Amino acid sequence: VLSRTLYDGLMQRILPALLCAAIVYPMAGLSATGRTGPWHAALFIAALCLTNMLGTAVVTCFAIICPSASVATVLSVCFVLLSTLFCGFVVNLPTLLSRGGGSWWGGLGPQYLSYLYYLNELTMSDELMGQTVTIKANLAPGQPPDIYQVAGEEILAHLGYTLNCSRVGGLGDPGTPYGPGNACWYDLTVPLGVIIVAV
Prior knowledge:
58% of the residues lie in helices and 6% in strands. Strand 1 and strand 2 form a beta hairpin. A two-stranded antiparallel ribbon has the order 1-2. The chain is built from seven helices and two strands. It is mostly helical.
């Protein structure tokens, strides 16, 4: 069990995630440059590795618990599909909660059951906190576009991601409200805790 866990975790989960992050992170124009670039990249890599391992751990638990491979496959597919629906990427979280009758379980929404939510929130928060996004709206052909400056926090609030959590990295540069690592601590600790419990 130990050798399988080490092989599966290192060779099939962590190394492919590192390779994917090395290609996708700079290609997508994420915060790979600047003084805090390595910090942002490290958070993204950690979140990607944890998400990959968490998904595998849960699917492996289904395979162990279920009496047949077909039942385990159905449960695994349902788990991944529901995680994709609830993560806030396909449908933004305020819309999801309003269609689902508001928050569930004493203020906790279904997004917290999605293993992809933590990666999405970490990446979005880490890239948008303390940033200003320029939006060009070209409504009429041949006319110059309307240019809007939108705070990253406003975008995060609109998408339903948390603004008032304990942030990894604390305060950053003087004069900036957010630090070099803008992810919520629970975006890292919850997946890690579930992996530990599942293993």
